[in-house]
Design goal:
By secondary structure, the protein is mainly alpha-helical. 71% of the residues lie in helices and 1% in strands. 26% of the residues are buried.
């Protein structure tokens, strides 16, 4: 292809979109004019406008790039685990016998020692041979160097002969001491008989020497596979016996030796520990047990062992007050297992987190808040959530933890919601793909869901200004979010917004006008039903609906039912209020229009029943309102309107709302059988790509059957 002509180049330069785009970007920055007729400062004005525009863009970019958990990351810093140099191994009494040690155990120890020494000797011999070869080469190259070596050798031998007799006594003492240390610190092979004897002595006699040996064995079991220091465990049975007995009885043994009961409060136990004379001797034993158990939590993958260890650590939380350096590793391990473990392990871990947040000071409460929130956010950084129940459980746990100190949690939540509002404003004004993607994400939505649950759980019980401010800020954010994503593909997100507004309205007792948002969903109808996506799915597992589900009848039915449920919940809250006839007028007009436009029979019946029930309740409240004699300005009388009827729950609309709730509960039970969209995609992949049988598998099967 040849070059463009002069006219074509001129046309491209004037009208081509890319040229115009680059010109718009570069024009205000590089526009310069010289001073003419005494006019100055034109260039400065252009530069100032460019700086202002660049400042706005950088501000929006900084808002887009900020993490949603940045408020809590500031407190999420790990401290030094332990300042001591010890490895947790306790020095045992050399006079304490190893009960039940067999000859096979001794032979095994000798074999282990000989194998270790043989490998060390091989390394020494190889190093000596290489050094000798190098010296021989130097002797051949330089004869003077060989003469120097011989003279140095003779002087060294004479010096050794003179000093040999003077240091003989000291060397003998050092050798004897070294032999004693080797005998004392020699690793022992732990058999079932040895461990059972130690356990019996600890349980019956509270023998402290046996307890030290047992804790060293427990440390070896916790460090199994990572370190070779300490004892050697014979088999899996011995491993299980050490773990089970120590985790089950260590707390009771420590309390028995310290003569402290588990029923006393935290302050009494702390003062009792300081006054106890045995605490100095038992302090390293308690610390060894706690450190070994924390190491076990970071190494083991079996959920049953982790659950049992976490449960027993919760019983020994009082002892962590004496070791502040171990509290941070405990919180870190508990938060990790809470976020990633199963139902039972996650529950046990959260109980430890909650007890640490309530028992210890405000510093550790802030640490628990920050680490749990950051872990919850990290679990939400996915495109689609497959396990909705686990995320709901994590959300409820965070809400319960935040409710421990509502005042401090409200300050944190206000800062977090302010950042969320800035991100939403940035998305409204810039319409950038990155900002919209960040808003319509599970990370953003789960955070709002968390704050809505926190407000709903505490707004009536706590008269807090920060909580009230958070309440109004959250309502504005949810309304803006619902109006920003108004298309039919975002109906799952809009239904979540409606559910949040209903929850806030019911918990606070304030009226929130959410009926227009629900009616917009009900007005949507499928023009032409598609042939794809006929499988049922869980609408709670997505935020943006895939295109193949947009024209499906299933999607319209699910959205219609969910919208009717939310509208019934909104009307049920106001069904006994004196202003119900006025509030229901406009929604009734729009509901009648939607009923006339709907062509699907079951949806028409659902709407007709809703319209009839709302009209009956309007007539009921209107009749009762005509009988009263007070004016609308008398708020106390207006608030007490129809309170007797409300307590009886015999009204027609109340019974209708109960039936709607029962049907919704039945559908939720059926949804447990429905699968989410990620699981459906995996099933489709498995159907498209069946597992291939190896070559000759059919012949082998035929041969076996024949």
């Amino acid at each position: 292809m040849g070059k463009l002509g002069k006219k074509a180049r001129k046309f491209a330069k004037k009208h081509l979109q890319s040229v115009l785009r680059t010109r718009r970007k570069t024009k205000p920055t590089f526009k310069k004019r010289g001073p003419k007729n005494g006019q100055k400062g034109i260039e400065e004005k252009v530069d100032k406008s460019a700086v202002i525009s660049n400042g706005r863009s950088t501000e929006y970019e900084s808002v887009e790039n900020t993490a949603l958990d940045v408020v809590f990351i500031e407190n999420d810093k790990d401290e030094v685990v332990d300042a001591s140099d010890s490895d947790g191994y306790l020095s045992e009494d050399s006079s304490f016998p190893i009960v039940g040690e067999s000859e096979t155990a001794k032979t095994l120890e000798d074999e282990i020692a000989t194998t270790t020494y043989s490998t060390q000797n091989k390394k020494i011999h190889t190093d000596l041979s290489t050094a000798k070869k190098k010296l021989d080469k130097l002797k051949k190259k330089d004869p003077e160097f060989s003469k120097f070596l011989e003279s140095f050798k003779n002087s060294a031998e004479s010096f050794q002969d003179d000093e040999a007799y003077s240091d003989e006594g000291d060397l003998s003492d050092q050798e004897a001491q070294g032999e004693d240390d080797l005998i004392k610190d020699k690793p022992k092979l732990l058999t079932d008989d040895v461990i059972n004897a130690w356990c019996q002595m600890v349980k019956e006699d509270n023998n402290q020497s046996a307890l030290i040996s047992l804790l060293n064995a427990y440390r070896a079991a916790c460090h199994y596979g990572t370190e070779s220091i300490g004892h050697t465990i014979e088999n899996s049975q011995s491993f299980c016996n050490v773990l089970l007995f120590t985790l089950s009885n260590a707390d009771d043994v420590f309390r028995g030796l310290l003569q402290m009961s588990s029923s006393k409060s935290k302050k009494e136990t702390l003062t009792e520990l300081k006054k106890t004379p045995k605490w100095k001797s038992l302090k390293p034993l308690v610390k060894s047990f706690l450190r070994s158990t924390l190491f076990l939590l970071n190494q083991v993958t079996d959920s049953d062992i982790l659950t049992f260890a976490m449960t027993r650590l919760r019983a020994s939380l009082t002892f962590f007050d004496a070791f502040p350096s171990l509290v941070q590793p405990l919180i870190k391990a508990a938060v990790h297992l809470w976020a990633t473990g199963g139902t039972i392990l996650s529950s046990a871990s959260f109980l430890v987190i909650r007890d640490v947040a309530t028992m210890f000071g405000s510093k550790y409460f802030d640490t628990c808040l920050s680490k749990t929130f950051v872990a919850f956010i990290s679990r939400s950084r996915v495109t689609e959530i497959a396990d909705i129940k686990h995320m709901q459980f994590l959300r409820d746990c965070v809400v319960e933890l935040f409710s421990v100190n509502v005042k401090k949690s409200s300050l944190k939540s206000v800062d977090s919601m302010t950042r969320f509002s800035k991100i939403l404003i940035c998305g409204f004004q810039t319409k950038k793909k990155e900002a919209i993607k960040k808003i319509c994400s599970w990370e953003y939505i789960n955070c709002i869901d968390l704050w809505v649950r926190f407000i709903s759980a505490n707004i009536r019980d706590h008269d807090n200004k920060d909580l009230q401010y958070l309440f109004f800020m959250t309502i504005q954010l949810i309304v803006g979010l619902a109006n920003m994503f108004s298309g039919p593909r975002y109906f799952p997100l809009r239904l979540k917004c409606i559910e949040w507004l209903n929850s806030l309205s019911i918990s606070s007792g304030d009226y929130i006008p959410l009926a227009p948002l629900v009616l917009d969903v009900l007005e949507y109808k499928v023009v032409k039903e598609g042939k794809r996506a006929q499988n049922a799915f869980n609408i709670g597992s997505v935020l943006k609906l895939p295109k193949q589900y947009l024209k499906s009848r299933i999607f319209q039915d699910v959205c219609f039912q969910s919208a009717v449920e939310q509208l019934c919940q909104h009307f049920a809250q106001l069904s006994y209020h004196i202003s119900f006839p006025d509030l229901a007028t406009i929604p009734l007009i729009r509901l009648r229009k939607i009923h006339e436009a709907t062509t699907i029979e079951n949806l028409r019946r659902m709407l007709k029943r809703l319209i009839d029930q709302v009209e009956q309740n309007v007539d009921f409240v209107q009749r009762k309102r005509d009988e009263v004699s007070f004016s609308p300005h008398e708020h106390e009388s207006a608030d007490s309107f129809l309170q007797l009827e409300k307590s009886s729950t015999n009204a027609s609309f109340t019974q209708y709302y109960k039936s709607i709730l029962d049907k919704a509960a039945e559908r939720k039970l059926q949804k447990c059988g429905d699968i989410s969209l990620p699981e459906q995609r995996n099933l489709k992949k498995n159907r498209v790509e069946p597992k291939r049988k190896p070559v000759g598998a059919e012949d082998h099967q035929n041969g076996v059957t024949s």
